[in-house]
Amino acid sequence: MNFNQLKAFYFAVKFGSYSSAAEALYITQPAITKQIQQLESTYGIKFLNRFGKKMVLTDAGEILYDFADKIFQMESQAEERLRDFQQRKSGRLRIHASESFGAYYLPFIINLFRKKYPNIHISVNIFPNQEVIENTIKLENDLGFISYPSEHKKLVIQDVLEDRLVLIVPPSHPFSRLKLLDPQKLDGQSIIMHEKGSATREIVDTFIRRNHLSVSVALELSNNEAIKRAVEEGAGVSLISEHVVSEEVQSKKLKSIPLTDPTMKRKYYLIHHKDKYLSHPLKMFLYMVHQWALKYTNR
Predict the structure, then answer these.
(1) Which end of the chain has fewer surrounding CB within 10 Å, N or C?
(2) Could you report the per-residue pLDDT of 171-213, keeping only the tens digit for each?
(3) How many CB atoms within 10 Å of residue 140?
(4) Which residues contact 221 (CB under 8 A, 6 or more apart)?
């Protein structure tokens, strides 16, 4: 089997277009077309049907793609292992993270890591939880951080840390004088919520139902920074991870009040592909994640 032809076919299917495959492989689009045609001609089998811009795999094409996926994942793993022998004290890490963990926790870990290992290049991309999971399954990162547990046969998942949710209010709000907040005090309040489907929203919705609260949803926002600014402006109160609001509490822009309900916590998780080769830099980073999380939990 000609592996250049197989790679042309694999990338065309993976990216959903001949032009994207050509760009990824640094060749022309006609070259991609020719490689796939030659592959089909060699075996006398049609692997792809094209309907305009739409690409549909035949039954034979689906079988070939599954094998190609395994082959090129193994190629990627082999390259990583060889690089690890070449550069024990240098290297790169590709990290994908959900918004909350990536913006408010991960920078502290990376800062500590880089002080000890300055020659290791780290790239971080922020994605929705599901996209982090999908990218990790496809071996498009070295590890991911997500806000809810996900079971998949290709994934290893580990608890990283648990953080409590607190109520945030502007300093002028009557609740700002409280040391602890009884859930019933939220009855009738106007609350700024995270978007539906987010980990925090699910926890807060469960909390409201469990305590039989009647609240009005003032706003639904998908970004922690937007939620904090809205609370600062007096648009309502909100429930948010304690660490996410630490800077505003220190600067006295907002007041955070813990709840008497001990279940108001959220977890963060680390994931990587089960077949992922744990290079020396990656092992060092994983160790530091757990060390930092332990100190954070015991602070």
Answers:
(1) C
(2) 999 999 999 999 999 999 999 999 998 889 999 999 999 999 9
(3) 16
(4) 192, 193, 194, 195, 227, 230
Contact 57, 50 (CB under 8 A): no
User: What span, in angstroms and rounded, lies between the C-alpha atoms of 184 and 271?
Assistant: 37
Angle between helices 29-43 and 18-25 (to 10 degrees): 100
Same fold, 3-84 and 90-161+267-297: no
Amino acid at 260: T
196: burial class by Cβ within 10 Å (0-12, 13-18, 19+)? exposed
Q: Is the dihedral of CA 227, 228, 233, 236 positive or negative?
A: positive
Query: CATH assignment of 163-266, given 3.40.190.290, 3.40.50.300, 3.30.70.2190, 3.40.50.2300?
Result: 3.40.190.290
Q: Which two tokens stand for residue 194?
A: 């995270």
Q: Supply 219's token pair.
A: 């706003």
CATH superfamily of this structure's domain 90-161+267-297: Periplasmic binding protein-like II (3.40.190.10)
Q: Render 69-132 in DSSP notation, one character per residue.
A: HHHHHHHHHHHHHHHHHH-TT-EEEEEEE-HHHHHHTHHHHHHHHHHH-TTEEEEEEE--HHHH
